[in-house]
Amino acid sequence: MTEVLFRSDFTVSLVDVMGNDERVCQAARVSTVGAQSLDTGESGGLINFLMKNRHGSPFEHILMTWMITAPIFVWREYMRHRIASYNEQSARYMQLEPVFYVPGPDRAFIQEGKPGHYTFVQGPVEDYTWLVADIQEDCHYLYSKYERRIGRGIAKEVARITLPLNIYSSAYVTMNSRGLMNFLSLRTKHEDSMFPSYPQHEISVVGDQMEESFAHHSPLVHDAFVNNGRVCP
Amino acid sequence: MTEVLFRSDFTVSLVDVMGNDERVCQAARVSTVGAQSLDTGESGGLINFLMKNRHGSPFEHILMTWMITAPIFVWREYMRHRIASYNEQSARYMQLEPVFYVPGPDRAFIQEGKPGHYTFVQGPVEDYTWLVADIQEDCHYLYSKYERRIGRGIAKEVARITLPLNIYSSAYVTMNSRGLMNFLSLRTKHEDSMFPSYPQHEISVVGDQMEESFAHHSPLVHDAFVNNGRVCP
Amino acid sequence: MTEVLFRSDFTVSLVDVMGNDERVCQAARVSTVGAQSLDTGESGGLINFLMKNRHGSPFEHILMTWMITAPIFVWREYMRHRIASYNEQSARYMQLEPVFYVPGPDRAFIQEGKPGHYTFVQGPVEDYTWLVADIQEDCHYLYSKYERRIGRGIAKEVARITLPLNIYSSAYVTMNSRGLMNFLSLRTKHEDSMFPSYPQHEISVVGDQMEESFAHHSPLVHDAFVNNGRVCP
Amino acid sequence: MTEVLFRSDFTVSLVDVMGNDERVCQAARVSTVGAQSLDTGESGGLINFLMKNRHGSPFEHILMTWMITAPIFVWREYMRHRIASYNEQSARYMQLEPVFYVPGPDRAFIQEGKPGHYTFVQGPVEDYTWLVADIQEDCHYLYSKYERRIGRGIAKEVARITLPLNIYSSAYVTMNSRGLMNFLSLRTKHEDSMFPSYPQHEISVVGDQMEESFAHHSPLVHDAFVNNGRVCP
Fold it and tell me: Does this complex have an ipTM over 0.90?
């Protein structure tokens, strides 16, 4: 019998980066100095000026490619971001691996309040234990049915239709830093955002991991983003 | 106990249309006659010329809005089309209805051949009967577990993570006719396509319904699309 | 000798509209009520909520098509807005009309202050008179040279290369209201903008005219845009 | 008196590249093998398969940034390509340099035939000499008037409105290889194109230079593009 695996985390592997803080400045300076923009100058102030005044286009010259593994319900939200390039694995062409998401112990999962005003709170530990077992039961059940259908010659694209939304899938994603900041402004949660956002926990963890590599490679751009209220320029 | 419903079809309701064959011609003529382009002239020949020579931009001035209801595995493919506007219902904010897709009796579901070269063939009727019952069993099972979780106060956005990919969801979609022709060239199946495409059956049925209203409202553009090998201009 | 015409205004003719305040609400409600979203409800509050919280996608279902006539230096800025559809007349295929822009008497044209901090002030009337005559002289000179080249059989696409940036050109433009609000936030000038913008006067006049028809057809969306600091959602 | 310079060529400097043939294959393989797609395999055949069958998305993971210097009438066509990132120098913020385009001796400039069917032929050498002198005369005239206006304190954004379309301007451009192939399919001229295109000579020279660096960095992708009739995937 196939072993079914459970994870509560996500893989966010940076594959490649093009451009950096200095490239943004060069691209911005071309508007005021023309072809001489390759000369360097003070960068932090210029980047902050661009961010604050929402001159967004220079930030499109930083590009990042990731390989990301996340459950389908995360990908569903992720792919609403249209200014990005995606290649995702296809359950039409391959049998999906038996890897499923379960909430980790720190995931607040009890909903309180009324529509438009609820918050999520941490449930009692026995409820968490029950919930995880309940989810795992479904995954075992569904994956074994999926395998049985494939074993009977059912087309993979049909066999997969009752796979659950928490099965993992992998994709290549390329975004420029302007698109990334838009993603982060909507899909991560921070007290100091000028426009507060209420993303689902799981995509915000993916977003946090993307933000970490972004901050590492373009520290001045990232600082300016944070210092100006996390508003996408 | 909640009644679970099964469908094998999709809802594609045209909500609104802007522009038509004549608008495409007006937009195209502006390049050769300027602001006088509102004068009318012979349209079929001009549209065919634009299509054949892949002058695509005039086709962006025909816009259509649909309300579409389809299973999530169809939406997953649909939303890879980025030059479009979407608003879909959210299982974070509402409990999804118990409506699930099962293949209809005409859906070829047995896969034959090897990777890259398979075809789908109609299975024996007893296999079809078994498959439908097998899928229905999963849906009953999963929806009752979904309801039980919600009944125990689990956040909707967590409770839903083992819902299957064949549950139905609804969305507003707005596309221009250039984006639509790109969609149709990739997501419908026609012998006479210059670049053959192998879409999953279910999205091709959605595509066929969209194409029907497109052909009705912009017959000359649609004719030119078909007569030029269904190549998106 | 060809008569050369001078204008200080711009033509912004609304050709068509699709969608309105109510459509935005329907598209937004689908996320919380699914396919029942066609039911009507109170709209102003919902639209304000969407705008304030930057839920931008429902605003993509209002679409507007314009025929606009403006000088090339305005089109150069205009076409930096990429989420829009354009068909402009082409000086490769037709001889451009002898119509040129001159600043109107209310156009502040004297630059004061240093880079990054200048303002424009109204010059003395004799300077204005001189400036207009100076510009007109260039246009007469250049258009007659343009015509002479064409008369000698020079290809139109070559003959036109010394036409000046203030010659008028016409285009069809289709934008959705989200793209339009982004355009207005950057290309019009208002005291009460959360993020102040410093557009060139001429494009701001075009923007004001577009805004007028937008406000007329989607008054609740426009009100919410204005009341929330003219921030594009 | 300011020296006015004339050029017949264009600067196309490659600033940076991200991704290559192998990246395209990795991104494509993720659909059939999931997260294991980093394993290498035979690339040429896969790339040709993707190109021929118009599976375009994997080509979005090759990105290139250029610094390009070209006349404004070239930029006007260039910027119609919306799936790209631009930062161009601004005549609102800086005085443009006195550098202008004149056709080179190999530029066919006489138009023969009727609308929709003309060709350009090489004119007699005395016509060419006249044409170049005629264009140069305009540039001297206009640049000196531009400088005089600026000298009188006229705002740069107003002073520049009679500058001609053949003045040079510089911009940073970032495109992915899918957008680039669309650009090349429309803006370069090749006998073996499946869909023939009739670009203006000057932008085709810019396109040829871009294509050269593209072919150098992603030779298998470029080969597949050429071998499949230069159809953008």
Answer: yes
Catalytic residue at C187? yes
Indicate the angle between helix axes C21-33 and C219-227, nearest 10 degrees. 80
**D120–chain A nearest CA distance, Å:** 32
Please give the pLDDT value at position B113: 81
pLDDT over 70 for what percent of chain A?
A: 96
Whole-angstrom Cα distance, residue C99 to residue C4? 6
What is the pLDDT of chain B when averaged over all its residues?
94
Closest CA relative to residue B140, chosen from B102, B174, B181: B102
- B41 pLDDT band, cuts 50/70/90, is low
> Looking at chain D, which residue has its C-alpha nearest residue B56?
D186
Residues of chain C contacting D93 with CB distance shorter than 8 Å: 115
Q: pLDDT at residue D177 above 90?
A: yes
The two tokens of residue A72 are 């389908």
Rounded to the nearest 10 degrees, how much is the dihedral formed by the CA atoms of B44, D53, D223, D79?
50
Tell me the pLDDT of chain D averaged across its residues: 94
* Residue ranges of domains in chain A: 5-103+168-227
B92-127 burial code (b ≥16 CB/10 A, e <16):
bebebbbbbbbbeeebebbbeeeeeeeebeebeeee
The dihedrals phi and psi of A70, each to the nearest 5 degrees, come to -155, 160
Quickly count: other Cβ atoms within 10 Å of residue D36's Cβ.
Answer: 13
pLDDT of B191 higher than 60: yes
Q: How many CB atoms lie within 10 A of CB A185?
A: 21
pTM exceeds 0.90, yes or no: yes
Spell out where chain A has E strands.
Answer: 5-7, 11-18, 63-71, 85-88, 99-101, 110-112, 119-121, 168-176
Instruction: Supply the Cα-derived Rg of chain A in whole angstroms.
Output: 21
Percentage of chain B surpassing pLDDT 90? 88
Could you tell me which residues come within 8 angstroms of residue D43 by beta carbon, excluding any fewer than 6 positions away?
A: D21, D22, D24, D25, D220
In angstroms, what CA-CA distances link A163 with A93, B10, C92? 15, 20, 56
D84-143 pLDDT per residue, tens? 999 999 999 999 999 999 999 999 999 888 766 778 999 899 999 999 999 999 999 999
- B196/chain A closest Cα distance in angstroms: 17
Which amino acid, D162?
Answer: T
- Determine the Cα angle at B225 with ends B223 and B226, to 5°: 65
Q: Which two tokens stand for residue D187?
A: 């803006």
How many Å separate Cα B178 from the centre of its chain?
15
Domain B5-103+168-227: give its CATH code. 3.30.1360.170
User: Smallest Cβ distance to D34: which of A15, A38, A170?
Assistant: A170
* pLDDT digit string, tens, across residues A16-26: 999 999 999 99
* Contacts with A164 from chain B: Cβ below 8 Å: 142, 161-165
Tell me which H or E stretch contains B203.
helix B201-217
- Closest Cα in chain A to D65: A61
**Contact list, B54 vs chain D (CB under 8 Å):** 186, 195
For residue A82, what are its two tokens?
């249209």
Which of B149, B161, B175, B203 has the highest number of chain A CBs within 10 A, making it the mutation to test binding with A? Answer: B161
Residue C119 DSSP symbol: E
- Buried-exposed string B216-231: b where 16+ CB fall within 10 A, e elsewhere: ebbebbbbbbbebebb
Q: Annotated catalytic residue: which of D23, D160, D187, D230?
A: D187
A91 residue type, one letter: A
Indicate if the alpha-carbon torsion angle D183, D187, D193, D197 is positive or negative: positive
User: Which residues, including other chains, have CB under 8 Å from residue C28's CB and lie 6 or more apart?
Assistant: B87, C37, C46, C50, C55, C58
Q: How many CB atoms lie within 10 A of CB B138?
A: 21
State how far the Cα of C101 lies from the Cα of C79, in Å rounded to an integer: 19
